[in-house]
């Protein structure tokens, strides 16, 4: 669509009712939106109407920044980061925008003067759960940091109609319920149908000779799908920058086939529409596993092709020659889900824009960079060749050609090493043939990074070893980080205020400034305040648990929390073994002196992951018994909080005393929950895995509860031949725990229910729970001891927070900017032409 220059419109002055920040103005704007957008007046308005009216009021105040940002980026053709991710787990927008705009207090007052409660309205927002866990939430933290650091960036992904399922618990089992986040409308997005693009799928290719006599390939697709962008503004913290999250919905090019309808084929008339729309219908609810599904590959090419075509449109629009694509854009691939970008960018440049192979390849490699997020072999994506050929015939040809050139390079560097060629090929030919997406990403990118120091080292030594030997210069580490805006300022205002009252608020943008808190660690008054705040937050969670689960919890007990996706490698069941150990001690000696604990769990299991679901059932079954056993006398409580989400996480992190980060060493790439808990003053019990290693280095070993085998010890034990039964037979407490479960004590006498889990532990124990059991129990006993010395615990908590500066996502983004992206910040001034009248 053409844009129409219009000088009258350019001189438009926006009315201050849409930008003014006084309480009076906010109230007027709120009522105006209620009336004109929601079409309601207070007497008949629902809570959702009020939420929407407020959301529009806030969005109006964002738009000036958003438009200015776009104007300046366009005028200067600024170098831009494209962050390609199949997942963005944004969390609710309203509260975050209030914080970043710096108008939280005014808005709170304005709505309260209208007889409404801001917290209540914030609660109303359905969060866009467009991600599974760590990888999706990391993408969201990075968007926040890029905007805050004034880095021009675009997040590109899929606007799933149904995000991650809602979790209910029935009879202790997880039940999945469709997430209808768009049900009440989404006030934060603006559809941009004028920038729609088309994506081809299926069909076949044909060779032809063009008018210059060159060999060319034409792709005749079986199906074409339309992608329509929906834009959401991403505001930086107290800056004028508002970047864009651009999510694609799939539509049929023609939503209705009149030909079919007229010939009486009523179903056929809408069929194409249904088939196309399926592409952005639902998020795959898998975390750390890859399933070879045609629809998933179709989703990947869909959003990648839409995004790359959009970037090419922007390049042309800004009069940048296509040969300089890599100077305008750097494209970060968030894991391998967008790795098809390697072949798609080549295809666009060669087939659609007439570029030669060598130049296209040079641009592709210079533009793309790849982040790996997992060491689990089952999560490394590969696609059966037959599926790939039927959906992406042209891409397969391109991949074969890339592979040919690549293997020639390998041969030149490692002559005579045919086994290396087999291992490194983009095509796995050991049985059924597959395309290896991680290999494609490595070959097509100029940078390959892991997400914590240990993870990067293990990639180099193990998973991507051959690639490290081939291209050592491409490898680098970028330890993850989290945004302190959402995970402190918004979610923990009490601690935020206490900290700022002592050291000012510079830490919100420069997290290292938290270091200044160390000066107060011996100040009894400060320590007292610190403790009272934690206690008040715990009281709030107690009330929430009472309401949600009907369980009464002792607020003075240790709040011992494990909140994350359910997976065997994360070992929620090791935590369960500890709970039963304490329970057995009480049963053996009801008067035993035990430090009271509340064990809190939250997290979802992939719907098809039976063992993870059985672990959820086990925890709920333990809760039923332990919470109701009179011998326990409230010393232990077990709580499973259902439907873990970003909103929920914000409530839980601030209340934790102890953060459980107990994965088997060598499996958790980084973890980011570990950072959020510690930032909120929890102490960590953890293995030397992922970013735990770096957190311990920062906060000091004396302020961290470390236990268990290290990654090299794990490999060595497995190489020697691990026999879990030996541990079972030689450890009295461990045996009693396993026997207690096996006896049906937690399953109303049913000895079969948990048998699959017990069999897996006794005979395989892939994640070495038995090997780490004693070390974990000893460490937990130490935790209980230390907690009794409340002054010591408080001191440790303060030191943890004071030393978390490294783990801001701002630091991660600065590292990406310097080492990979080569990009500078572009400060935004609120320009004249659309400056609001004050
Ligand atoms: C996660 C890692 O498991 C976690 O350690 C890390 O902190 C996080 O990524 C961010 O880097 N990985 C995934 O979420 C993941 O691999 N998900 C894909 C299967 C969807």
TrEMBL record:
Alphabetized Pfam families for the sequence: Phosphorylase
Residues recorded with modification N6-(pyridoxal phosphate)lysine: 676
GO biological process: glycogen catabolic process
Entry superkingdom: Bacteria
Cofactor dependence: pyridoxal 5'-phosphate
EC number of this enzyme: 2.4.1.1
This protein's UniProt keywords: Carbohydrate metabolism, Glycogen metabolism, Glycosyltransferase, Pyridoxal phosphate, Transferase
This protein's GO CC annotations: cytoplasm
CDD domains the UniProt entry points to: GT35_Glycogen_Phosphorylase
Function: Phosphorylase is an important allosteric enzyme in carbohydrate metabolism. Enzymes from different sources differ in their regulatory mechanisms and in their natural substrates. However, all known phosphorylases share catalytic and structural properties.
Database matches in NCBIfam families: P_ylase
Family the UniProt entry places it in: Belongs to the glycogen phosphorylase family.
UniProt protein name: Alpha-1,4 glucan phosphorylase
Organism: Chroogloeocystis siderophila 5.2 s.c.1
């Amino acid at each position: 669509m053409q844009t129409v220059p219009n000088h009258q419109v350019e001189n438009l002055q926006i009315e201050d009712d849409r930008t003014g920040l006084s309480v009076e103005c906010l109230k007027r704007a709120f009522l105006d939106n209620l009336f004109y957008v929601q079409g309601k007046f207070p007497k008949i308005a629902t809570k959702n109407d009020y939420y929407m009216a407020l959301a529009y009021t806030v969005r109006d105040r964002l738009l000036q920044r958003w438009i200015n940002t776009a104007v300046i980026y366009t005028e200067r053709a600024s170098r831009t980061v494209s962050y390609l991710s199949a997942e963005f787990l944004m969390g609710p927008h309203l509260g975050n925008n209030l914080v970043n705009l710096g108008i939280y207090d005014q808005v709170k007052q304005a709505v309260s003067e209208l007889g409404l409660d801001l917290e209540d309205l914030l609660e109303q927002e359905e969060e866009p759960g467009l991600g599974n866990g760590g990888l999706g939430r990391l993408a969201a933290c990075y968007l926040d940091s890029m905007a805050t650091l004034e880095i021009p960036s675009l997040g590109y992904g899929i606007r799933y109609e149904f995000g991650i399922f809602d979790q209910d618990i029935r009879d202790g089992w997880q039940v999945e319920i469709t997430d209808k986040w768009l049900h009440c409308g989404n006030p934060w997005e603006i559809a941009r149908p004028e920038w729609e693009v088309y994506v081809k799928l299926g069909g076949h290719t044909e060779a032809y000779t063009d008018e210059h006599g060159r060999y060319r390939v034409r792709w005749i697709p079986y199906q074409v799908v339309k992608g329509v962008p929906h834009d959401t503004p991403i505001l930086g913290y107290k800056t004028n920058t508002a970047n864009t999250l651009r999510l694609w919905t799939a539509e049929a090019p023609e939503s209705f086939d009149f030909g079919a309808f007229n010939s009486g084929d009523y179903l056929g008339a809408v069929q194409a529409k249904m088939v196309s729309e399926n592409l952005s219908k639902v998020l795959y609810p898998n975390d750390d596993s890859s399933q070879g599904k045609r629809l998933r590959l179709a989703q990947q090419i869909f959003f990648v092709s839409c995004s790359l075509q959009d970037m090419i449109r922007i390049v042309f629009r800004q009069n940048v020659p296509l040969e300089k694509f890599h100077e305008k854009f750097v494209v970060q691939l968030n894991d391998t889900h967008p790795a098809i970008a390697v072949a798609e960018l080549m295809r666009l440049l060669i087939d659609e824009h007439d570029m030669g192979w060598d130049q296209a390849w040079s641009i592709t490699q210079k533009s793309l960079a790849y982040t790996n997020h997992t060491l689990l072999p089952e999560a490394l994506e590969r696609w059966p060749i037959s599926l790939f050929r039927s959906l992406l015939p042209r891409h397969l040809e391109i991949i074969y050609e890339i592979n040919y050139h690549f293997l020639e390079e390998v041969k030149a560097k490692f002559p005579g090493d045919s086994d290396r060629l087999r291992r490194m090929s983009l095509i796995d030919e050991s049985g059924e043939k597959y395309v290896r997406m991680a290999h494609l990403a490595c070959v097509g990118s100029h940078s390959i990074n892991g997400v914590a120091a240990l993870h990067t080292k293990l990639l180099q030594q193990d998973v991507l070893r051959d690639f490290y030997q081939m291209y050592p210069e491409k490898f680098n580490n970028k330890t993850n980080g989290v945004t302190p805006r959402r995970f402190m300022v918004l979610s923990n205002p009490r601690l935020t205020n206490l900290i700022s009252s002592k050291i000012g608020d510079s830490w919100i943008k420069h997290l290292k400034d938290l270091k200044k808190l160390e000066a107060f660690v011996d100040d009894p008054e400060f320590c007292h305040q610190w403790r009272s705040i934690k206690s008040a937050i715990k009281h709030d969670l107690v009330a929430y648990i009472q309401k949600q689960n009907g369980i009464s919890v002792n607020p003075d007990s240790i709040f011992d929390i494990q909140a994350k996706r359910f997976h065997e490698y994360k070992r929620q069941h090791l935590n369960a073994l500890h709970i039963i150990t304490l329970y057995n001690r009480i049963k053996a000696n009801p008067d035993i002196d035990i430090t009271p604990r509340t064990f809190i769990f939250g997290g979802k299991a992939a719907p098809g992951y039976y063992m993870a679901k059985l672990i959820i059932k086990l925890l709920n079954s333990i809760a039923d018994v332990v919470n109701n056993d009179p011998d326990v006398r409230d010393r232990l409580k077990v709580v499973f909080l259902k439907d873990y989400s970003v909103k929920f996480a914000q409530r839980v992190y601030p209340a934790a005393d102890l953060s459980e980060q107990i994965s088997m060493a060598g499996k958790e790439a980084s973890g980011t929950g570990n950072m959020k808990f510690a930032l909120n003053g929890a102490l960590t019990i953890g293995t030397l895995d992922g970013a735990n290693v770096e957190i311990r280095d920062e906060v000091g070993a004396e302020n961290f509860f470390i236990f268990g085998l290290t990654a090299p010890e794990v490999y060595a034990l497995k190489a020697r031949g691990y026999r879990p039964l030996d541990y079972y037979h030689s450890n009295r407490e461990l045996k009693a725990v396993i026997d207690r479960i096996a006896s049906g004590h937690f399953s109303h006498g049913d000895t079969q229910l948990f048998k699959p889990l017990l069999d897996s532990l006794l005979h395989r124990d892939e994640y070495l729970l038995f090997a780490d059991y004693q070390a974990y129990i000893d460490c937990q006993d130490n935790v209980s001891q230390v907690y009794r010395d409340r002054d010591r615990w408080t001191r440790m908590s303060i030191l943890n927070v004071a030393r978390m500066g490294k783990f801001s996502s701002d630091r991660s983004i600065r590292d990406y900017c310097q080492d990979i992206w080569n990009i500078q910040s572009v400060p935004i001034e609120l320009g004249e032409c659309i400056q609001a009248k004050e």
